[in-house]
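Appendix C: a fully annotated inverse folding record. The material below is reproduced so that readers can follow the format used throughout the book. The structure is listed first as tokens, followed by the designed sequence.
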């Protein structure tokens, strides 16, 4: 059953050069890492950080899948390649994301001093303090003996 689609292996499309597929993987990874750094770097938009990835990912898949198959995850490409034996351009899905990530880090390094916390949920927007209570119980006052 899976043999017809190479067991899910991510492969560059026929007619696409390896360098074009590599560049596509690098650009999409750059976009993800750079947007994450920008959203974490500015407090006014920080709470919207989780909302950037669904539309970004939808655009990336639409634009990149005809070129490289849009791996976006080296492990997701390695597993099917091992099972199917399809190794054409497998290195693209490792080198491209690493290169895109490194370039994004260099390009956004000016934001490093602005990023206070790199997590998806921030307690400063927890109006009812529900998650703060779940994360760390409030200290109780010591009991004094009645007598």
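Designed amino acids, in order:
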């Amino acid at each position: 059953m899976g043999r017809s689609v190479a067991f899910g292996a991510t492969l560059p499309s026929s007619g696409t050069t390896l360098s074009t597929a590599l560049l596509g993987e690098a650009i999409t990874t750059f976009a993800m890492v750079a947007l994450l750094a920008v959203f974490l770097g500015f407090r006014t938009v920080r709470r919207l950080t989780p909302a950037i990835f669904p539309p970004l990912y939808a655009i990336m898949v639409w634009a990149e899948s005809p070129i490289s198959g849009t791996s976006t995850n080296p492990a997701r490409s390695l597993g099917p390649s091992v099972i199917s034996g399809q190794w054409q351009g497998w290195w693209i899905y490792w080198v491209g994301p690493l290169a895109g990530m490194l370039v994004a880090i260099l390009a956004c390094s000016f934001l490093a001093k602005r990023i206070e916390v790199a997590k998806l949920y921030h307690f400063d927007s927890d109006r009812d303090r529900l998650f703060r209570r779940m994360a760390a119980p409030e200290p109780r006052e010591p009991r004094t003996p009645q007598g």
